Structure formats: structure tokens, C-alpha cells
Amino acid sequence: MMIAIPDEEWRIFRKMSTKRFIQILQQLAGKVDLAKFRKHKRGPKKPRQERTRNPKQPHVSTAKLLKG
Known about the structure:
rod-shaped, 40% helix, mainly alpha
């Protein structure tokens, strides 16, 4: 935080009690719009493609395919 905010801005917090400091931080955190800090908005999921199948031959083993 010392990088983002100059030392002069922190002086008001030095005289504050810990309890009051926590209250102020919670109030400030409540005002933050977290959506602005997301790296990437996730798009909608793509629908699953239906598997193609042959009703006359429901299953062929991999071993048979490799053998033939």
C-alpha cells in the first residue's frame, strides 16, 4: 500500500484506534466494484455435441479397429 499511496495520506490512520481503522477499511472495501478487477469475463459454455452412433453396430472395440 505504501507504493500506491504516499506517506502523507497515511498520517490520519496513525492516530486512529485499531477498531476504528478496521471499520474504515471495511467501509472502503464495501464500495469496491470487484467486477472491474476480473481478468477475463467467462463466456457461455458451448453445448455438447451429440455422439454419432450406428444402431446396427453399437460398439466396436479399439483392439478390433487396430487389428483390422
